[in-house]
Write a structure and sequence with these properties.
Layout (H helix, E strand, L loop, with lengths): L1 H24 L6 H17 L12 H13 L1 H4 L8 H4 L3 H32 L2 E4 L5 E5 L6 E3 L2 E5 H20 L2 H14 L4 H19 L1
Length: 217
Amino acid sequence: MGTFFVYILKTSICLTGFYLFYRLLLSKETFHRFNRVALLGILLLSLLIPFCEITVPKESEVQQTLVTIEQILTLADHVPQTEVQALPSSMPLWLPVLLCIYLLGILFFLGRNLYSLFHMLRLLHGGRQEKLEKGITLIIHDKNIAPFSWMKYVVISEKDLQENSKEILIHEMAHVHNRHSIDLLISDICIIFQWFTPASWLLKQELQNIHEYEADE
């Protein structure tokens, strides 16, 4: 578990650094498709870079500190079973507490996402269905709900369908055609494991904004 936590911390550092780079250089650009690819690329690079090992002739104080922290975090994974009784004296007391808090955070956000998914599936199967072009299914509800799309589904209320159906359907179908739901699914999975990293939340918000710009165009 300690090794996995080290990987999560490295991923968090990469994610934060790349996101700050994006905010400084790319966030004000109006090439929305390029920005979308850049944000997804940040997620991919942040997952892959921690696996790379870089050696330098002489380590700086910061590098030595990071190596020490990594050794402490991975200590629990390398202690032999015969030395379990001696573990508390060699491992900092804050380490198991930190790991427990992190795991509780994962369980909380996983449960929240599963609840949201269950609620959305109820909406998808609880309304009147109509088939649209290219395999898209329109779900019409009697109750007043905000229109949204997910994968190949577009959900709309009866009231919105009668008043502004053309504009809303064009907008939501643009989300479907651009596969924006997949981006949000990936970012939600990232948040489950990086819930303590502000960059993961901000990155999802950036993706959502780009999705709206793309759909509006």
